[in-house]
Amino acid sequence: xxxxxxxxxxxxxxxxxxxxxxxxxxxxxxxxxxxxxxxxxxxxxxxxxxxxxxxxxxxxxxxxxxxxxxxxxxxxxxxxxxxxxxxxxxxxxxxxxxxxxxxxxxxxxxxxxxxxxxxxxxxxxxxxxxxxxxxxxxxxxxxxxxxxxxxxxxxxxxxxxxxxxxxxxxxxxxxxxxxxxxxxxxxxxxxxxxxxxxxxxxxxxxxxxxxxxxxxxxxxxxxxxxxxxxxxxxxxxxxxxxxxxxxxxxxxxxxxxxxxxxxxxxxxxxxxxx
Length: 274
Ligand code: AMP
Fold this sequence. Notes:
This protein folds into 2 domains: about 1-165, Rossmann fold, CATH 3.40.50; about 180-274, Pantoate--beta-alanine Ligase, Chain: A,domain 2. It is about 40% helix and about 20% strand. The protein has helices at about 1-10, 30-40, 70-80, 90, 110-115, 115-130, 145-155, 185-190, 195-205, 215-225, and strands at about 15-20, 45-50, 80-85, 135-140, 160-165, 230-240, 250-260, 265-274. The strands form 2 sheets. A 5-stranded parallel β-sheet has the order 3-2-1-4-5, with helices on both faces. The protein has a 3-stranded antiparallel β-sheet with strand order 6-7-8. Strand 1 (about 15-20), helix 2 and strand 2 (about 45-50) form a beta-alpha-beta unit. Bound molecules: adenosine monophosphate (AMP). Adenosine monophosphate (AMP) binds near residues 143, 166, 168, 176 and 177.
């Protein structure tokens, strides 16, 4: 109610509102979304909420890193106007019973090993959209399937919100920034470089003209399989909008992977228009 009242006040003043949904433990990847939102909107809301319903039963909900004080500082420095940091109890009544479920786009890639994940994402994003009523919402290409899922939900359910996709921010050595990188010990942090190495290899092959999905994917898999601490969940090439597998790179294609480094599941990808 407080968030709604504030946004209503802004609206009365004719101000535009951008929303950046996050699970907190903010890093430069999140900051790039906030920076973009600050540029394109009069007011920016950052939601900071570890959404329990997008975690599977054996996943890392209880250990997911949290640091709201550091998040507040980052948001303030980046020029965000409001942090929405609800408790799980505020978001989910004990008899909560309404979910947004998507077919197809949410079924491949991460949806295979995380079958209830996108239902949790769609539901919480829907709730955030209704609470904040933003003009624009910002999502990272780091979670490329999530971005495709949110775009599809907004189209299918006629939501009057512009979805803005933002490029992947990486560490200097290539590793995509992620709150989950904090789980990695020193050896795992080094091993995690196989993800970005495989991404750069696949990208280069495509830039040089290779179009056969299997040729590209097997070169990428080989890089990952050479690392003893790495275990592939998937490495696949799909249409970037529908998330259906392709055998040839044509149109806007997403080449995406999920790889376990020890117990930590990391994702990375690249999107290319060919
Ligand atoms: P999370 O807190 O991990 O749920 O991420 C919140 C938003 O930040 C999502 O839209 C992510 O795609 C985006 N994001 C996370 N890491 C990165 C990154 N390294 N580069 C760009 N966007 C990111």
